[in-house]
């Protein structure tokens, strides 16, 4: 799969639900959002059909997201289906971790290759404030459970903010010192008008080096996305950065998104979408390949987060 700028597209993020059991301040309004009707959401079988078609033209990596994917029943069934798709190399999951402890065994048995756990702080009170209702101990329990499965790559995603972000960064990064997990700091993208504060990558790295010493860059990629990684002496895991604003990586973008209701979204910020659900439910699966290839020609060259005043859908409506 090639877009209009010659970039190879081989990574698909699949939202399987718009529902979530948290209300994180930078992702979803406190009152929630109007949820899609059950019949509007793609079935696991329909997702498998789409992935089988796209795998024929180069799809290699899929990531299951939400909302919160683990609130959808038997998420492991989709993992198992996708692992059987010829051409797919990895099937991974992004979760807030609240339900991970109880579902980890089934997900791993189904063939999950990796899991990204969102964890913005280790402080219980701060976590509850950010998520408006979450219990960080449940996330940590899920993280501990995943340590039983060394064949699964575990990464922690941390979105920093607040007046004590330096202390938070040091504390969360410390998990990579004690455990074989990779901690990634993600710059907050200006998706919500009321919350545009961000901690730039260079500032975060400086705060970490002040405590843990000089970091060495990792030349070997640690996945198939835009993260860059460094290694601190004595750490079991690595520390990474996903910095869409301060270190724009659009030139190497390899991903597209599938929303829970079957829209192929070409860029996180762009509202250009193609309805794949209509093709699947209309029995027109043969058209999927050509439709995707034509759609990719319209993938934007880059996001425009740096331009103020551009309307962007909230993250909870986009899919993780």
Task: Offer a few descriptive terms.
TIM Barrel; molybdenum cofactor biosynthesis; 10 helices; 320 residues; 4Fe-4S; GTP-binding; GTP 3',8'-cyclase activity; lyase; 12-stranded mixed beta sheet; alpha/beta
What can you see in these coordinates?
- This protein has a single domain, classed as TIM Barrel (Alpha-Beta Barrel).
- Helices cover 30% and strands 16% of the residues.
- The protein has 10 helices and 12 strands.
- It has helices at residues 44-55, 75-83, 100-110, 124-131, 136-146, 165-178, 201-212, 277-281, 288-296, 315-318, and strands at 11-15, 61-65, 90-95, 114-118, 153-158, 182-186, 216-217, 228-231, 239-242, 255-258, 263-265, 273-275.
- It has a 12-stranded mixed beta sheet with strand order 7-8-9-6-5-4-3-2-1-10-11-12.
- A hairpin with a 7-residue loop joins β11 and β12.
- The longest helix has 14 residues, at 165-178.
- It is globular and about 55 Å long.
Q: How many domains?
A: 1
- Under CATH at level 1, the class stands as Alpha Beta
Shape: globular
Any low-confidence stretches, pLDDT <50, length ≥5? 308-312
Number of helices: 10
The name of the CATH architecture is Alpha-Beta Barrel
Rg, Å, rounded: 19 Å
Q: Mean pLDDT across all residues, rounded?
A: 90
CATH superfamily: Aldolase class I
- The chain-level structural class is alpha/beta
Strand content: 15-25%
Estimate percent helicity: 25-40%
Q: What is the element string, with H for helices and E for strands?
A: EHEHEHEHHEHEHEEEEEEHHH
The name of the CATH topology is: TIM Barrel
Describe the biggest sheet? 12 strands, mixed
Question: How is the largest sheet built, in terms of strand order?
Answer: 7-8-9-6-5-4-3-2-1-10-11-12
Total number of beta strands = 12
Domain Radical SAM core: 4-219
EC number: 4.1.99.22
Catalytic activity: GTP + AH2 + S-adenosyl-L-methionine = (8S)-3',8-cyclo-7,8-dihydroguanosine 5'-triphosphate + 5'-deoxyadenosine + L-methionine + A + H(+)
Keywords: 4Fe-4S, GTP-binding, Iron, Iron-sulfur, Lyase, Metal-binding, Molybdenum cofactor biosynthesis, Nucleotide-binding, S-adenosyl-L-methionine
């Amino acid at each position: 799969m090639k877009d209009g700028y010659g970039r190879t597209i081989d990574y698909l993020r699949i939202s399987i639900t718009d529902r979530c059991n948290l209300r994180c301040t930078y992702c979803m309004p406190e009152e929630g959002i109007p949820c899609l009707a059950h019949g509007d959401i793609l079935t696991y079988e329909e997702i498998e059909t789409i992935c089988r078609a796209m795998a024929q033209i180069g799809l290699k990596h899929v990531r299951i997201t939400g909302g919160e994917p683990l609130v959808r029943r038997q998420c492991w069934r989709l993992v198992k289906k996708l692992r059987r798709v010829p051409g797919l190399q990895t099937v991974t999951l992004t979760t807030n971790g609240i339900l991970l402890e109880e579902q980890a065994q089934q997900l791993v048995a189904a063939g999950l290759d990796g899991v990204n756990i969102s964890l913005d702080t280790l402080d219980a009170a701060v976590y509850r404030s950010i998520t408006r209702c979450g219990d960080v101990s449940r996330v940590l329990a899920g993280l501990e459970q995943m340590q039983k499965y060394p064949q699964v790559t575990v990464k922690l995603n941390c979105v920093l903010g607040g007046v004590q972000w330096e202390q938070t960064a040091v504390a969360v990064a410390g998990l990579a010192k004690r455990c074989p997990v990779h901690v990634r700091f993600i710059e907050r993208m200006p998706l919500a008008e009321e919350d545009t504060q961000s901690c730039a990558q260079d500032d975060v790295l400086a705060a970490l080096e002040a405590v843990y010493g000089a970091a060495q860059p990792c030349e070997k990629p640690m996945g198939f996305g835009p993260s860059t990684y460094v290694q601190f002496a004595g750490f079991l895991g690595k520390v990474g950065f996903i910095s869409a604003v301060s270190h724009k990586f659009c030139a190497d973008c390899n991903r597209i998104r599938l929303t829970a209701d079957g829209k192929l979204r070409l860029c996180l910020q762009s509202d250009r979408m193609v309805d794949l659900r209509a093709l699947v439910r209309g029995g027109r699966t043969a058209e999927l390949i050509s439709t995707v290839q034509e759609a990719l020609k319209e993938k934007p060259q880059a996001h425009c987060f740096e331009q103020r005043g551009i309307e962007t859908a909230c993250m909870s409506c986009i899919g993780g």
